[in-house]
Automatic annotation (TrEMBL):
Pfam families: Ala_racemase_C, Ala_racemase_N
Listed GO CC annotations: cytosol
Entries under HAMAP family matching the protein: Ala_racemase (MF_01201)
PTM-bearing positions, type N6-(pyridoxal phosphate)lysine: 36
Active site, renumbered: 36, 257
Listed name of the protein: Alanine racemase
Alanine racemase C-terminal domain segment(s): 236-365
Gene3D superfamilies given in the database record: Alanine racemase, Lyase, Ornithine Decarboxylase, Chain A, domain 1
Cofactor: pyridoxal 5'-phosphate
Functional summary from the UniProt entry: Catalyzes the interconversion of L-alanine and D-alanine. May also act on other amino acids.
EC number: 5.1.1.1
Keywords assigned by UniProt, alphabetized: Isomerase, Pyridoxal phosphate
Species assigned in the record: Mesotoga prima MesG1.Ag.4.2
Length: 369
């Protein structure tokens, strides 16, 4: 049931197209698809199934419970957990065939003694993000210690800090640091040892032929990983709602909390049954737009928890309750992107899609665009 005609529409055909495109950009490296945070708000289980059907080689998630949910849905692909897992939960990773990340000597000491309950691990090398992992010299020592203690290290990875800034010299510094780590391991790593460094931006802009995988997240959903626009990416998510009320207001009338908008003329306005509880950011108050009847309509006043109001005075044909409203997406040739909303809010497209709450049902469209 959806009493307010509000949905996030997920175009699985567009998702498949993005996977094919990114696989080509990554080659000969393989594609590891990042489906953390419920696939950036798109639905991790459903998109993981499409990724598996499309021939993707591996998935990555942030936390253990995300990996378990995907595994329980019937996905057999290898899954890498990128973040911290508490000691008592490590045997659960083994049970669900999840690969964990090893980032410190303290973590190594914490897992010794679990013996046969240990899953595989991949080593996190810090080359500049300063979040997890040790610098390359210490990472070699950590690798050697782990192997001596019988822990199966199947690969190593690092993460770019500035790959979205085309021409960044820091990317080269990080690649060189990771290269020194790999060179330092020498013959101690077998030929099946997996290496990966590139995120979405790195997948599109850099040569990844020296690595086993790329880790693509945001670009798989058709969202731009940097200010450089790649027209080959097809947005997967559209967000639609409807008009719930139409009203004429007079000059001098205010709209919504705090009276932050006061009409300077007689106006026709429409109410939209969506608010910040759904993920429509309150920073869009008096700034954002939606599309109705192919026309951009500006948000008037503050966005409320469950509703906001827009100006429809300029729409020539009658607007009625129940008419479609596009929040993200395209209608009659007019478009609003997640990137546009992010710019208005002073944030990034990642946050826009991840913030769409579970109160907004995801509807999956399998046909072609």
């Amino acid at each position: 049931m959806n009493s307010r005609k509000t949905f996030a529409l997920i175009d699985l055909s567009a998702y498949r197209q993005n996977l094919v495109y990114l696989s080509g950009k990554a080659s000969p490296a393989k594609l590891m698809v990042v489906v953390k945070a419920d696939a950036y708000g798109h639905g991790a289980v459903e998109l993981s199934k499409v990724a598996q059907e499309s021939g993707v080689d591996r998935l990555a998630v942030a936390f253990l419970e995300e990996g378990i949910k995907i595994r329980q849905s019937g996905i057999s692909l290898p899954i890498l957990v990128l973040n911290y897992v508490e000691k008592k939960e490590i045997p659960t990773a083994k049970e669900f065939s999840l690969t964990l990340s090893l980032s410190s000597f303290a973590q190594l000491e914490n897992i010794i003694g679990l013996n046969k309950q240990l899953p595989d691990f991949q080593l996190v090398v810090d080359t500049g993000m300063r979040r997890l992992g040790l610098e390359w010299e210490e990472s070699i020592e950590l690798y050697n210690s782990a192997v001596r203690k019988g822990i199966n290290i199947t690969g190593a990875y690092t993460h770019f800090a500035t790959a979205d800034e085309k021409g960044s010299g820091f990317v080269l510094e990080q690649r060189e640091a990771f290269g020194r780590f790999l060179h330092g391991l020498g013959q101690r790593r077998n030929r099946h040892f997996e290496t990966h460094i590139s995120n979405s931006a790195g997948t599109i802009y850099f040569d990844n032929s020296d690595f086993s995988y790329v880790r693509a997240g945001i670009a798989t959903y058709g969202l731009q990983p940097s200010k450089e626009t790649d027209e080959n990416l097809k947005p997967v998510l559209s967000w639609v709602s409807c008009v719930s009320f139409v009203k004429r207001i007079r000059t001098g009338y205010s709209v919504s909390y705090g009276r932050t908008f006061v009409a300077d003329r007689d106006m026709l306005v429409a109410t939209i049954p969506v608010g910040y509880a759904d993920g429509y950011n309150r920073l869009l108050s008096n700034r954002g737009y939606v599309i109705i009847s192919g026309k951009r309509c500006k948000v008037l006043g503050r966005v409320c928890m469950d509703q906001f109001v827009v100006d429809i005075s300029h729409i020539e044909k009658p607007v009625s309750i129940g008419d479609e409203v596009v929040i993200v997406g395209t209608q009659e040739g007019e478009s609003i992107s997640a990137e546009e909303i992010a710019d208005l809010c002073g944030t990034i497209n990642y946050e826009v899609v991840c913030s769409i709450s579970s109160r907004v049902p995801r509807v999956y469209k399998k046909g072609v665009n």
